[in-house]
Structures are given as structure tokens and as C-alpha cells.
Predict the structure of N-(5'-phosphoribosyl)anthranilate isomerase.
Amino acid sequence: MTRIKICGITRAEDALAVARSGADAIGFVFYDKSPRYVTPQQAAKLARAVPPFVTLVGLFVNSSDEYVRDVLAQVPLDVLQFHGEETPEFCRQFGRPYLKAIRVKPGVDLVQCAASYSAAQGLLLDAFVEGTQGGTGESFDWSLIPRELSLPLILSGGLHAGNVAEAIRKIRPYAVDVSSGVEAAKGIKDAAKVAAFINEVKQIDLQLS
Ligand SMILES: O=C(O)c1ccccc1N[C@@H]1O[C@H](COP(=O)(O)O)[C@@H](O)[C@H]1O
């Protein structure tokens, strides 16, 4: 069963719709250059709209350790997602499960990345797009993903209802993560796109089981 994370939630109605559609995890972006940025106070309020058994993920990009601790003091995050150039030591210090995102381009040694971040819960692969840190809606060349990785693989980058089944068939990731591909506008989720995306994942999982 492929797990599903829907990232970049900024509205309570989207949090609820995403959870009701069957997502396993939702993500809050604590990166102030993102159009999906939420303050810790907003995220704490959004978190209260989420029903039980949905994992709450906090996304950070090269934040200070003080800022991460400040967010953790206010928002009941289950998992941290580090989407910048954070070192393994930085990621580990919070004593929380974390995902390390790698922006993939030719020449990046993903086997070595997985070894370096061996304490991570998973390696999240996103597209490398010059001048941005992620959440671009761009996909990357999946043939750059090694067959064997020592960490669970979370595939992201330009996924949507039209390509997620092919991605799962080819890569067999542990989970998929999407933001742009299920939006009506940046930071605003489209409930029909979310439902179509989740439906595609469930259908291909059934076919492959
Ligand atoms: O969502 C953002 O704005 C964002 C900003 C900075 C780093 C990562 C961000 N989002 C993550 O990017 C990937 C791919 O997103 P998309 O589906 O291609 O839009 C995903 O993991 C988001 O969580």
C-alpha cells in the first residue's frame, strides 16, 4: 500500500477534505519564501481541524534550530521534513522522526545520501530546479533513482492524478507526496484533484497487489 502525503495545507477546509479523502499525512510549510507558508500559530489552528490517525508533517528549509524548536513547541508535529541543505546532525537533534528531502539532478549520489541520513525515516526525492527549494510542480528523471536504497523512498516532484500511477508502477515508492498537482491555486487545494490523485494511488495499488 503506497502511503500518501498531501503538502502545503493552508486552510482548515482543505485539511479536512484531504483527510476525508484518505491521505495518510498532511504537510505544513514553515518556509516563509513559499506561497504555502503558514505561521506556527496558523498551523496549530489547522492541526486542530485534522481528525485522528493522520500524520502531521512540518516542512523546513534551512531554518535555525531555534525556529524548529519554536514551531515544535506550538504545533503537534509527528514528523519533520528537511528540504534544504541541513546536515544529518542538524536533522537528528530534535529527537523527532524526520524525512530528508534531496533535490535530484544528474550526478547526485542517492545511495550515499541515504547512507549519510541513515537516522531518517525516509528519503524524499524532489526535482532540482535552479533558484528554488521545492514545491515547483516539476518532475525529474525517475531513471536517476537507484533500484536499491537503504531508506524508505518518498517520491515527489510534479506528481498529479495523470502520472502518479505510472510513477508507482515504475518506482514502487514507499509513499508519494504532492503539492502543486492537487491545487486550484498556490496554497489552495482542489478537493476534486485531491480525490482523483488518491483514487489513482488506490487503484494502482490494487492492480499491483
Ligand atoms: O511547497 C512548497 O512551497 C515547498 C517549498 C520549499 C520546499 C519544498 C516545498 N514543497 C515540497 O516540494 C515537493 C514537491 O512539490 P510539488 O508537488 O512538485 O509541488 C513536495 O515534497 C512538497 O512537500
Residues 3-208 form a domain with the TIM Barrel fold (CATH 3.20.20.70).
